[in-house]
Design goal:
This protein has eleven helices and twelve strands. The chain is elongated, with a radius of gyration of 22 Å. It has a seven-stranded antiparallel sheet, with helices on both faces. It folds into two domains: about 130 residues, no CATH class; about 180 residues, Jelly Rolls.
Protein backbone atom coordinates (compact mmCIF):
# COMPACT_ATOMS: atom_id res chain seq x y z
CA UNK A 1 0.00 0.00 0.00
CA UNK A 2 2.84 2.41 0.86
CA UNK A 3 4.54 1.75 -2.47
CA UNK A 4 1.32 2.44 -4.34
CA UNK A 5 0.73 5.66 -2.40
CA UNK A 6 4.25 6.83 -3.24
CA UNK A 7 4.33 6.02 -6.95
CA UNK A 8 0.84 4.96 -8.04
CA UNK A 9 2.12 1.58 -9.26
CA UNK A 10 3.29 -1.70 -7.76
CA UNK A 11 6.61 -3.21 -8.73
CA UNK A 12 6.77 -6.84 -9.93
CA UNK A 13 8.74 -7.67 -6.78
CA UNK A 14 6.02 -6.24 -4.53
CA UNK A 15 3.30 -8.12 -6.39
CA UNK A 16 5.21 -11.40 -6.11
CA UNK A 17 5.88 -10.88 -2.40
CA UNK A 18 2.19 -10.15 -1.77
CA UNK A 19 1.18 -13.58 -3.09
CA UNK A 20 -1.75 -12.37 -5.17
CA UNK A 21 -3.77 -15.28 -6.57
CA UNK A 22 -2.51 -17.78 -3.96
CA UNK A 23 -5.92 -18.15 -2.36
CA UNK A 24 -5.15 -21.45 -0.62
CA UNK A 25 -2.93 -19.72 1.98
CA UNK A 26 -3.07 -16.50 3.97
CA UNK A 27 -1.12 -13.80 2.12
CA UNK A 28 -0.83 -9.99 2.30
CA UNK A 29 -2.73 -9.81 -1.00
CA UNK A 30 -5.49 -12.00 0.39
CA UNK A 31 -5.87 -9.70 3.39
CA UNK A 32 -6.05 -6.63 1.11
CA UNK A 33 -8.65 -8.37 -1.05
CA UNK A 34 -10.63 -9.19 2.10
CA UNK A 35 -10.46 -5.57 3.25
CA UNK A 36 -11.71 -4.36 -0.12
CA UNK A 37 -14.59 -6.83 0.20
CA UNK A 38 -15.49 -5.37 3.59
CA UNK A 39 -15.35 -1.83 2.19
CA UNK A 40 -17.63 -2.76 -0.71
CA UNK A 41 -19.98 -4.65 1.60
CA UNK A 42 -20.32 -1.66 3.93
CA UNK A 43 -21.34 0.54 1.02
CA UNK A 44 -23.72 -2.07 -0.36
CA UNK A 45 -25.43 -2.35 3.03
CA UNK A 46 -25.79 1.44 3.00
CA UNK A 47 -27.90 1.07 -0.13
CA UNK A 48 -25.36 1.70 -2.89
CA UNK A 49 -25.49 -0.39 -6.06
CA UNK A 50 -22.35 -1.92 -7.57
CA UNK A 51 -22.26 0.74 -10.28
CA UNK A 52 -22.43 3.52 -7.71
CA UNK A 53 -19.66 1.98 -5.60
CA UNK A 54 -17.53 1.56 -8.71
CA UNK A 55 -18.10 5.18 -9.67
CA UNK A 56 -16.91 6.41 -6.28
CA UNK A 57 -13.92 4.10 -5.89
CA UNK A 58 -12.92 3.27 -9.47
CA UNK A 59 -10.34 6.00 -9.91
CA UNK A 60 -8.48 5.47 -13.18
CA UNK A 61 -10.43 2.31 -14.01
CA UNK A 62 -13.11 2.58 -16.66
CA UNK A 63 -16.69 2.34 -15.43
CA UNK A 64 -17.11 -1.18 -16.77
CA UNK A 65 -13.81 -2.40 -15.32
CA UNK A 66 -14.51 -0.86 -11.91
CA UNK A 67 -17.99 -2.41 -11.82
CA UNK A 68 -16.58 -5.83 -12.77
CA UNK A 69 -14.03 -5.56 -9.97
CA UNK A 70 -16.69 -4.60 -7.41
CA UNK A 71 -18.85 -7.54 -8.49
CA UNK A 72 -15.86 -9.92 -8.38
CA UNK A 73 -14.99 -8.76 -4.88
CA UNK A 74 -18.55 -9.60 -3.83
CA UNK A 75 -18.17 -13.14 -5.19
CA UNK A 76 -19.38 -12.92 -8.80
CA UNK A 77 -17.78 -16.01 -10.38
CA UNK A 78 -18.00 -14.76 -13.97
CA UNK A 79 -14.62 -13.02 -13.65
CA UNK A 80 -12.98 -16.37 -12.83
CA UNK A 81 -13.37 -17.54 -16.42
CA UNK A 82 -11.80 -14.41 -17.93
CA UNK A 83 -8.25 -14.87 -19.32
CA UNK A 84 -5.65 -13.44 -16.94
CA UNK A 85 -4.55 -10.75 -19.37
CA UNK A 86 -8.15 -9.49 -19.64
CA UNK A 87 -9.16 -9.79 -15.98
CA UNK A 88 -9.74 -6.71 -13.83
CA UNK A 89 -8.92 -8.68 -10.68
CA UNK A 90 -5.29 -7.65 -10.30
CA UNK A 91 -3.38 -6.59 -7.22
CA UNK A 92 -2.79 -3.17 -8.79
CA UNK A 93 -6.55 -2.61 -9.21
CA UNK A 94 -7.40 -3.98 -5.76
CA UNK A 95 -4.87 -1.69 -4.08
CA UNK A 96 -6.02 1.31 -6.12
CA UNK A 97 -9.67 0.79 -5.21
CA UNK A 98 -8.82 0.11 -1.57
CA UNK A 99 -6.76 3.30 -1.38
CA UNK A 100 -9.73 5.21 -2.84
CA UNK A 101 -12.06 3.66 -0.25
CA UNK A 102 -9.86 4.78 2.64
CA UNK A 103 -9.59 8.25 1.16
CA UNK A 104 -13.37 8.32 0.66
CA UNK A 105 -13.84 7.59 4.37
CA UNK A 106 -11.07 10.00 5.44
CA UNK A 107 -9.53 7.53 7.90
CA UNK A 108 -6.04 7.52 9.39
CA UNK A 109 -3.46 4.81 10.11
CA UNK A 110 -5.05 3.65 13.38
CA UNK A 111 -8.42 2.99 11.75
CA UNK A 112 -6.74 1.37 8.76
CA UNK A 113 -4.95 -1.06 11.10
CA UNK A 114 -8.27 -2.00 12.71
CA UNK A 115 -9.87 -2.63 9.33
CA UNK A 116 -6.93 -4.73 8.18
CA UNK A 117 -7.20 -6.85 11.35
CA UNK A 118 -10.86 -7.55 10.53
CA UNK A 119 -9.87 -8.33 6.94
CA UNK A 120 -7.27 -10.82 8.15
CA UNK A 121 -10.01 -12.70 10.02
CA UNK A 122 -12.12 -12.72 6.85
CA UNK A 123 -9.20 -13.91 4.71
CA UNK A 124 -8.40 -16.67 7.22
CA UNK A 125 -12.01 -17.91 7.03
CA UNK A 126 -11.77 -17.95 3.23
CA UNK A 127 -8.55 -19.96 3.33
CA UNK A 128 -10.15 -22.52 5.65
CA UNK A 129 -13.14 -22.75 3.32
CA UNK A 130 -10.94 -23.35 0.28
CA UNK A 131 -8.81 -25.88 2.15
CA UNK A 132 -11.92 -27.98 2.63
CA UNK A 133 -13.34 -27.38 -0.84
CA UNK A 134 -12.46 -30.84 -2.12
CA UNK A 135 -14.20 -32.41 0.85
CA UNK A 136 -17.27 -30.24 0.28
CA UNK A 137 -17.86 -31.61 -3.20
CA UNK A 138 -20.24 -34.55 -3.45
CA UNK A 139 -18.25 -37.75 -3.43
CA UNK A 140 -15.45 -36.21 -1.41
CA UNK A 141 -16.69 -37.51 1.91
CA UNK A 142 -19.91 -35.51 2.26
CA UNK A 143 -23.28 -35.38 0.54
CA UNK A 144 -25.92 -34.70 -0.39
CA UNK A 145 -26.25 -38.43 -0.78
CA UNK A 146 -28.13 -40.81 -3.00
CA UNK A 147 -30.00 -43.47 -1.07
CA UNK A 148 -28.10 -46.14 -2.98
CA UNK A 149 -24.83 -44.82 -1.56
CA UNK A 150 -25.76 -45.13 2.11
CA UNK A 151 -27.95 -48.21 2.39
CA UNK A 152 -28.79 -48.76 6.06
CA UNK A 153 -26.70 -45.76 7.13
CA UNK A 154 -29.67 -43.40 6.71
CA UNK A 155 -30.75 -43.83 10.34
CA UNK A 156 -31.38 -40.68 12.31
CA UNK A 157 -33.01 -38.83 9.42
CA UNK A 158 -36.68 -37.93 9.03
CA UNK A 159 -38.11 -40.08 6.21
CA UNK A 160 -40.05 -37.92 3.76
CA UNK A 161 -40.01 -40.52 1.00
CA UNK A 162 -38.18 -38.61 -1.72
CA UNK A 163 -35.91 -37.02 0.88
CA UNK A 164 -34.45 -38.27 4.12
CA UNK A 165 -33.48 -35.21 6.14
CA UNK A 166 -31.45 -34.79 9.34
CA UNK A 167 -33.47 -32.44 11.53
CA UNK A 168 -31.56 -30.72 14.35
CA UNK A 169 -33.20 -30.24 17.73
CA UNK A 170 -35.49 -27.25 17.87
CA UNK A 171 -36.10 -27.14 14.11
CA UNK A 172 -39.71 -27.14 12.80
CA UNK A 173 -40.73 -28.89 9.58
CA UNK A 174 -43.43 -27.47 7.30
CA UNK A 175 -44.59 -29.06 4.02
CA UNK A 176 -44.85 -27.15 0.73
CA UNK A 177 -47.55 -28.47 -1.62
CA UNK A 178 -48.02 -27.99 -5.36
CA UNK A 179 -51.31 -26.12 -5.18
CA UNK A 180 -54.12 -26.35 -2.66
CA UNK A 181 -54.73 -30.06 -3.18
CA UNK A 182 -51.47 -31.07 -4.82
CA UNK A 183 -48.73 -33.37 -3.54
CA UNK A 184 -46.02 -32.20 -1.17
CA UNK A 185 -43.02 -31.24 -3.31
CA UNK A 186 -40.74 -29.40 -0.86
CA UNK A 187 -40.04 -29.07 2.82
CA UNK A 188 -39.09 -26.01 4.85
CA UNK A 189 -37.04 -26.26 8.02
CA UNK A 190 -37.46 -23.31 10.38
CA UNK A 191 -34.89 -22.48 13.04
CA UNK A 192 -34.81 -19.57 15.44
CA UNK A 193 -33.00 -17.21 13.04
CA UNK A 194 -32.64 -19.10 9.73
CA UNK A 195 -34.71 -21.25 7.41
CA UNK A 196 -33.94 -23.82 4.71
CA UNK A 197 -36.29 -25.04 1.99
CA UNK A 198 -35.37 -28.30 0.25
CA UNK A 199 -36.72 -29.59 -3.06
CA UNK A 200 -35.50 -32.45 -5.22
CA UNK A 201 -35.96 -32.58 -9.00
CA UNK A 202 -35.46 -35.35 -11.50
CA UNK A 203 -32.27 -34.85 -13.47
CA UNK A 204 -32.52 -33.30 -16.93
CA UNK A 205 -29.49 -33.08 -19.26
CA UNK A 206 -30.29 -29.46 -20.02
CA UNK A 207 -30.74 -28.51 -16.36
CA UNK A 208 -27.64 -29.26 -14.26
CA UNK A 209 -26.85 -27.04 -11.29
CA UNK A 210 -24.28 -25.14 -13.38
CA UNK A 211 -27.09 -23.99 -15.68
CA UNK A 212 -29.69 -23.44 -12.96
CA UNK A 213 -27.41 -20.99 -11.15
CA UNK A 214 -27.35 -18.73 -14.19
CA UNK A 215 -31.12 -19.01 -14.57
CA UNK A 216 -31.62 -18.00 -10.94
CA UNK A 217 -29.35 -14.98 -11.34
CA UNK A 218 -31.25 -13.79 -14.39
CA UNK A 219 -34.62 -14.36 -12.72
CA UNK A 220 -33.71 -12.39 -9.59
CA UNK A 221 -32.28 -9.55 -11.69
CA UNK A 222 -35.38 -9.45 -13.91
CA UNK A 223 -37.52 -8.76 -10.83
CA UNK A 224 -35.34 -5.88 -9.70
CA UNK A 225 -32.96 -7.71 -7.36
CA UNK A 226 -29.27 -8.51 -7.59
CA UNK A 227 -27.54 -11.89 -7.63
CA UNK A 228 -24.07 -13.36 -8.03
CA UNK A 229 -22.54 -16.82 -8.15
CA UNK A 230 -20.23 -17.42 -5.20
CA UNK A 231 -18.24 -20.19 -3.57
CA UNK A 232 -19.99 -21.25 -0.37
CA UNK A 233 -19.83 -23.97 2.29
CA UNK A 234 -21.72 -26.40 0.01
CA UNK A 235 -19.95 -25.52 -3.26
CA UNK A 236 -20.97 -22.94 -5.84
CA UNK A 237 -24.15 -21.11 -4.89
CA UNK A 238 -26.17 -18.02 -5.78
CA UNK A 239 -26.32 -15.18 -3.27
CA UNK A 240 -29.17 -12.83 -3.99
CA UNK A 241 -30.76 -9.68 -2.68
CA UNK A 242 -34.43 -10.07 -3.53
CA UNK A 243 -37.12 -7.38 -3.49
CA UNK A 244 -40.03 -8.27 -1.18
CA UNK A 245 -43.08 -6.53 0.22
CA UNK A 246 -43.40 -6.57 4.00
CA UNK A 247 -46.38 -4.98 5.76
CA UNK A 248 -47.22 -3.11 2.58
CA UNK A 249 -43.79 -1.54 2.03
CA UNK A 250 -41.04 -2.64 -0.41
CA UNK A 251 -37.95 -4.12 1.19
CA UNK A 252 -35.07 -6.42 0.26
CA UNK A 253 -34.14 -9.83 1.64
CA UNK A 254 -30.88 -11.79 1.46
CA UNK A 255 -31.31 -15.31 0.08
CA UNK A 256 -28.84 -18.04 -0.85
CA UNK A 257 -29.60 -20.76 -3.39
CA UNK A 258 -27.57 -23.95 -3.02
CA UNK A 259 -27.69 -27.00 -5.23
CA UNK A 260 -26.10 -30.31 -6.11
CA UNK A 261 -26.37 -32.81 -8.97
CA UNK A 262 -26.67 -36.48 -8.07
CA UNK A 263 -27.40 -39.74 -9.90
CA UNK A 264 -30.75 -39.03 -11.53
CA UNK A 265 -31.57 -35.97 -9.40
CA UNK A 266 -30.90 -32.33 -8.62
CA UNK A 267 -31.27 -31.20 -5.01
CA UNK A 268 -31.88 -27.51 -4.42
CA UNK A 269 -31.96 -25.57 -1.18
CA UNK A 270 -32.97 -22.00 -0.36
CA UNK A 271 -31.41 -20.42 2.73
CA UNK A 272 -33.00 -17.33 4.29
CA UNK A 273 -32.67 -15.42 7.52
CA UNK A 274 -29.34 -14.93 9.28
CA UNK A 275 -27.79 -17.87 7.44
CA UNK A 276 -28.14 -15.93 4.18
CA UNK A 277 -26.60 -12.68 5.40
CA UNK A 278 -23.43 -11.59 3.53
CA UNK A 279 -21.17 -12.06 6.56
CA UNK A 280 -22.43 -15.61 7.27
CA UNK A 281 -19.92 -18.37 6.49
CA UNK A 282 -21.92 -21.38 7.55
CA UNK A 283 -24.81 -22.48 9.70
CA UNK A 284 -27.08 -25.46 10.31
CA UNK A 285 -28.86 -25.09 6.90
CA UNK A 286 -25.61 -26.06 5.15
CA UNK A 287 -25.05 -29.02 7.44
CA UNK A 288 -28.60 -30.25 6.80
CA UNK A 289 -28.22 -29.78 3.05
CA UNK A 290 -24.97 -31.74 2.89
CA UNK A 291 -26.36 -34.63 4.95
CA UNK A 292 -29.71 -34.94 3.14
CA UNK A 293 -30.37 -38.20 1.27
CA UNK A 294 -32.32 -38.27 -2.01
CA UNK A 295 -34.51 -41.21 -3.04
CA UNK A 296 -35.36 -40.48 -6.67
CA UNK A 297 -37.39 -43.70 -7.03
CA UNK A 298 -39.93 -42.82 -4.33
CA UNK A 299 -43.43 -42.69 -5.92
CA UNK A 300 -41.74 -42.43 -9.30
CA UNK A 301 -43.92 -40.69 -11.88
CA UNK A 302 -41.93 -40.13 -15.07
CA UNK A 303 -44.04 -37.16 -16.17
CA UNK A 304 -43.31 -35.03 -13.11
CA UNK A 305 -40.29 -32.77 -12.77
CA UNK A 306 -40.12 -32.99 -9.00
CA UNK A 307 -39.51 -35.90 -6.67
CA UNK A 308 -42.61 -36.07 -4.40
CA UNK A 309 -42.41 -36.19 -0.64
CA UNK A 310 -44.39 -38.08 1.99
CA UNK A 311 -46.41 -36.10 4.52
CA UNK A 312 -46.66 -36.64 7.39
CA UNK A 313 -43.12 -38.03 7.54
CA UNK A 314 -41.95 -41.25 9.10
CA UNK A 315 -39.57 -40.87 12.01
Amino acid sequence: MREFERSGVLSPAAQEAAGFGEWSRLTPAGILFGELKLEVLARQEAGEAAEGIAGRLGGSLTGDAATRLVRAVMGDMREVGVPAEQSVVTLQNVVAMLSAAWADDGIGDADIDLRLAAAEDLASDSVRLMAGAAELRRGGGVGPWDIGELGDAVAGRVDLGGLLVPVPAGIRLDPVAAGADGPVVAITLFGETSALQLQAYRARPERPWDVVRGQLCRSVTAYGGSAAECAGPAGLEVRALQPVVSEGSPQTMNVRFVGCDGPGWLLRGTVSGQGAEPESFGSWPYEVFRETVVNAEFAHVATTDFIPLRWPPER
